[in-house]
Amino acid sequence: MGLDNMPHAYPCKEQGTAVIEKRTHTWEDENGNTQSENSYPVDCDKTIEAGGCPYMNASPPETGSVTGMFGTYCWYRGKYGNWLINALKAPKTMNIDNIDSWGIDDDASFYGTDTEGQYRPPQECRELADQMESALNERGGQLIFDKDDRTDDVLFAIWYLRWVAKECDGMDAWY
How far is residue 95's CA from residue 70's CA, in Å, rounded to a whole number? Predict the structure, then answer.
């Protein structure tokens, strides 16, 4: 099972800068009849080309990113975010292969904080970013295991949490 995070409200849609294209999915049902359904997804590449992607316009850090699921740029790999939270709590001498990647379903994770675990409001995104930043500072501003430096990854996660808090009314969790 995975865990991905995405904006609760897509700022490109909210600002009216999203390039949206109609897609039609066609299939045959069990009786051999042709069925079709339309969808209207954001075309992220065309939105970026048009200068309308608030995520890219915010100049995300160039290193440490684990985004881009399903052709988007503003989705974050929450399972890895949970691994980073657990890594920040782990002894510096721990083997990174032994760090739990799932985390726990509580306020200190990339799961949502509502009863379904699917929505994290802006204030709670900021609080998680602050907790991660504090834990990183307690480690001297670095997250390194042996020669494996994950500092940029933590800094990106902190940036992402603050970005969705400011621009997206928080974030959703999909798992």
Answer: 31
Those residues whose C-beta lies under 8 Å from the C-beta of residue 73, and which sit 6 or more positions away, are 44, 48, 53, 55, 56, 67
pLDDT in tens, 70-119: 778 999 999 999 999 999 999 888 888 888 877 666 678 999 999 998 99
Q: Supply φ then ψ for residue 96, to 5 degrees.
A: -65, -20
**129-143 confidence digits (pLDDT tens):** 999 999 999 999 999
Token digits of residue 21: 């294209």
How many residues does the structure list for the chain?
175
Token pair of 44 as six digits: 């992220």
Q: How many CA atoms lie within 13 A of 47 on its CB side?
A: 25
